[in-house]
Amino acid sequence: MWRELLPIGRSAATGGYFRTPWTAAERECVAWFHEQAAARGLRLQGDRLGNTIAWWDAAPADPGSPAAGPAGSGVVTGSHLDSVLDGGAFDGPLGVVSAFAALDALRDRGVTPARPVGVALFLEEEGSRFGQACLGSRLATGATTWEQAAGLQDRDGVWFLDALERAGAPAGAPAGSAAGPANLLDRVGCFVELHVEQGRDLVDRDAAVGVASAIWPHGRYRFDFAGEANHAGTTRMEDRRDPMLTYATTALAANKQARLFGQRATFGRVDVHPNGTNAVPSRVTAWLDARAESADRLDALVAEVGRLGQEWAGRDGTTLEVAAESVSGEVRFDAGLAQRLAGPRDWPVIATMAGHDAGVLSAAGVPTAMLFVRNPTGVSHSPAEHAEAADCLAGVAALADVLEQLVAPEAADGA
Q1: Domains (ranges, CATH) in the chain?
Q2: Is the pLDDT of residue 353 over 90?
Q3: 25-28: which pairs have CB atoms within 8 A and are 24 or more residues apart?
Q4: Which helix (H) or strand (E) holds 13?
Q5: For strand 74-80 and strand 117-122, is the pairing parallel, antiparallel, or unpaired?
Q6: Which residues does residue 221 pair with via DSSP β-bridges, in sequence order?
Q7: 59, 45, 53: which is closest to 107 by C-alpha?
Q8: CB-based burial of residue 317 (10 Å sphere; 0-12 exposed, 13-18 middle, 19+ buried)?
Q9: Which segments of 142-208 are extended strands (E)?
């Protein structure tokens, strides 16, 4: 499975991945998912966006009852297949490949699940095209409405619904409808997501597998700096109203504030107008990714960066407006489920600063847990992202053990 996915969307120049949602590479990955489900005889259930769960239906205890099982009975695992721009191979796909491999392991063990088991594929998790992280799972849970999604544009000016239509994907739910996307999760009783660790915690602990305890609050904020376009050669330095200078000092201020308080602040995307070499720009738009250990600290960090930016704007003769585009609160994973996973195996329980579909489902009330596979360098969202084969196989075995425990008859009776 890994060999089949590896070349899809890979850049020959960098070795990184460009699996942007609703483009050819990402669509090929989705087709691969459907092929894997069909090869295992799994029943596909999708929503209007294209989020999909491939179900291994339980054998009913009562021959007259449906194999699909009642609402809230299913144990689901999986992740996403889209990537950040020039991303790594493991972020997302490792969770999907491992989910199919874990189901194979259960069948090899002769397990007959007392609850339906599903492999989930969520779309646009990274937010690389429309700027909304975990958009697929947010639409599935209702955390983002279809009306809100319809107002999203990518960096080329393509509207969200137009992108779906051009890709031949469903055009979205009718206005005011929340029932369509939410139906996908009706049968989900718990969700376990396996993911490559995006840090070095497991390396420092010398552990191949870990369990997540929480996700830090995080958000994406748009900073609009405005000034006055002018000639790069004839305009005296003291006469300039240069928004690039205001942006640069604001980026330095964000870095300093995050370092002072042990938080995270990153300006990773910038759009400059008119973007000419020999012209003072009239406008700079920059996006801040901010993360902190609590919601209060996150709010304080962003507010302080904005305040310092406003100060610099006053000195530079420019203006600054700040708008939140996507904010996710702290997620505490189901403590009982995490303890059930970690306790018997002595797996470490660690927090993560990265957002995941599991966090969205947890916030929606679905009992949720995450397994992490060790990343030897801690590098992620980069072509250098990596995990050793032995650790990946340990992750598959761990996930299979967890699923077997959750679908046992005694677990189904107590769910």
Answers
A1: 2-213+332-414 (3.40.630.10), 218-328 (3.30.70.360)
A2: no
A3: 26/81, 26/82, 27/167
A4: none
A5: parallel
A6: 288, 324
A7: 59
A8: middle
A9: 188-196
**Tens digits of per-residue pLDDT, 96-120?**
999 999 999 999 999 999 999 999 9
Q: Which two tokens stand for residue 251?
A: 């980026």
User: Which amino acid is it at 18?
Assistant: F
Sorting pLDDT into bands at 50, 70 and 90, what band is 60?
low
pLDDT in tens, 109-159: 999 999 999 999 999 998 889 988 899 999 999 999 999 999 999 989 999
The binding site comprises: 80, 91, 126, 195, 220, 278, 291, 381
Annotated binding-site residue numbers for allantoate: 220, 278, 291
144-147, long-range: CB < 8 A, 24+ apart: 145/178, 146/48, 146/172, 146/173, 146/175, 146/177, 146/178, 146/181, 147/175, 147/176
Q: Provide the annotated binding site for Zn(2+).
A: 80, 91, 126, 195, 381
CA angle in degrees (0–180, nearest 5) for 380-386-388: 145
Ramachandran class of 176: left when φ > 0, alpha when ψ lies in -120 to 50, beta otherwise: left
Which residues on neighbouring strands pair with residue 324, listed in sequence order? 221
Task: Choose among 111, 118, 138: nearest CA to 127.
Answer: 138
The per-residue pLDDT of the chain, averaged, comes to: 89
Over pLDDT 70: what percentage of the chain? 91
- For residue 19 the two structure tokens come to 């699996």
Residue 350 CA to chain centroid, in angstroms? Answer: 18
Listed in order, strand segments (DSSP E) in 274-401 are 279-280, 283-291, 319-328, 331-332, 349-352, 368-373
